[in-house]
């Protein structure tokens, strides 16, 4: 699998069930959300703007998408909803993933991506406040799994696992 194929297979609407585990406190949470990923062309104005903010040329864009989500987490009354722009720069097999923070359009720490031997997408984001490692793979065309670990400098960490099923549209 490569980044363009990964984005293509991820496009569409997904139902996600998430489980968080706060390792230091043994606190656990679960949640549900709907995720929608729309593919974008490299010449999309939002893609061009994010690349420009990062000092990069759109000619290096390997894939781009707008991701929207709407969900809830156990014990939190406020809904978690928003959107983010994702832009992959590099070769089909590895490179840099640019992204925006939520609805603000502000550039977030970029990460590096690569693909494992089994075709799984692996992303690492390093910032002064945390290191995030994420692994996403497809069990089938319509079932996706995601494992994330966020490690903080103070030794605390959060681990999450999501199972995501593609929402199919009914044909009239």
Automatic annotation (TrEMBL):
Entry superkingdom: Bacteria
CDD domains registered for this protein in UniProt: CpcS
One BP term from GO: protein-tetrapyrrole linkage
EC number: 4.-.-.-
UniProt keyword terms in alphabetical order: Lyase
Family recorded in the similarity comment: Belongs to the CpcS/CpeS biliprotein lyase family.
Listed name of the protein: Chromophore lyase CpcS/CpeS
Database matches in HAMAP family: Chrphore_lyase_CpxS (MF_01459)
Function: Covalently attaches a chromophore to Cys residue(s) of phycobiliproteins.
Organism: Romeriopsis navalis LEGE 11480
GO MF assignments: lyase activity
